[in-house]
């Protein structure tokens, strides 16, 4: 068994805690994006941080038939855990289980803040109008949020209460959300486990395909 974290302090703590509980895994301090080739291949890779794209080494270092358990994140929402099986053709396929919400893997974090980086004095953003309630796409319906996050993967939103003219405003940093929500309703409002993900090697990274 191998346990890995990028934080040296946490790695030291994990080593002591695991030894005290009678476990003897290799505890490694490294960037998890590279997996850990010296002990590969693995029957299971279990991530305790979320990702937006699966690092290629995780696919490569899992045996055929092995399991990858990966909390999922999109800029739209952090929700769901992928449970995928490594296939003989080098891909991995599986469905999402609800409720995973882990911190995003460090290398995949994008540092964007609405008021610091996006809104500027004198800016005239393109205006579009929809009758869709902002709460239907960014409220408590996490099935809808997950679906939108997978269908429009680059899109993010921010709730903004620092406005005079409106009680609340939902800023979208992209469009297509209405179409994604309409697709969600047309598909019968699929719950998280109806989303099937396929991860394939693609150059030095991986490609994601989503099906219902
Ligand atoms: C929710 S904590 C889980 C900690 C511990 N594994 C556990 O299960 O209690 C997420 C951990 O992911 C680690 N992490 C984030 N990005 C990482 C990366 N690129 N490589 C390795 N570890 C990373 C963080 O340092 C943090 O300790």
**Count the strands?**
10
Report the mean per-residue pLDDT as an integer: 92
Number of helices: 6
Strand content: 25-35%
Main sheet properties: 6 strands, mixed
Radius of gyration, rounded? 20 Å
> CATH topology of the largest domain, which one?
Rossmann fold
Order of helices and strands: EHEEHEEEHHHEEHEE
Unreliable residue runs: none
Structural class: alpha+beta
Number of domains: 2
CATH class of the largest domain: Alpha Beta
State the strand order across the main sheet.
Answer: 3-4-5-6-9-10
Helical content stands at 10-25%
CATH architecture assignment name of the largest domain: 3-Layer(aba) Sandwich
Q: N-to-C terminal Cα separation, in Å?
A: 34 Å
Bound molecule kinds, no repeats? S-adenosylmethionine
The rough form would be described as: globular
The CATH superfamily of the largest domain turns out to be Vaccinia Virus protein VP39
């Amino acid at each position: 068994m191998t346990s890995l974290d990028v934080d040296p302090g946490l790695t030291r703590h994990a080593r002591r805690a695991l030894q005290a509980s009678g476990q003897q895994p290799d505890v490694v301090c490294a960037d998890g994006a590279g997996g850990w080739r010296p002990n590969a291949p693995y029957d299971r890779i279990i991530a305790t941080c979320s990702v937006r794209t699966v690092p290629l080494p995780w696919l490569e270092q899992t045996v055929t038939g092995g399991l990858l358990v990966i909390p999922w994140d999109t800029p739209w929402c952090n929700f769901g855990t992928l449970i995928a099986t490594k296939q003989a053709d080098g891909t991995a396929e599986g469905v999402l289980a609800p409720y995973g919400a882990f911190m995003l893997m460090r290398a995949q974090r994008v540092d964007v803040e609405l008021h610091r980086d996006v809104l500027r004095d004198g800016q005239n953003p393109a205006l579009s109008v929809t009758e869709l309630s902002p709460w239907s796409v960014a409220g408590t319906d996490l099935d809808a949020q997950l679906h939108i996050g997978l269908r429009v993967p680059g899109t993010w939103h921010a709730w903004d209460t620092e406005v005079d003219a409106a009680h609340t405003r939902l800023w979208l940093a992209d469009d297509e959300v209405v179409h994604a929500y309409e697709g969600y309703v047309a598909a019968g409002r699929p719950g998280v486990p109806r989303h099937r993900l396929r991860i394939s090697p693609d150059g030095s990274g991986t490609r994601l395909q989503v099906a219902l």
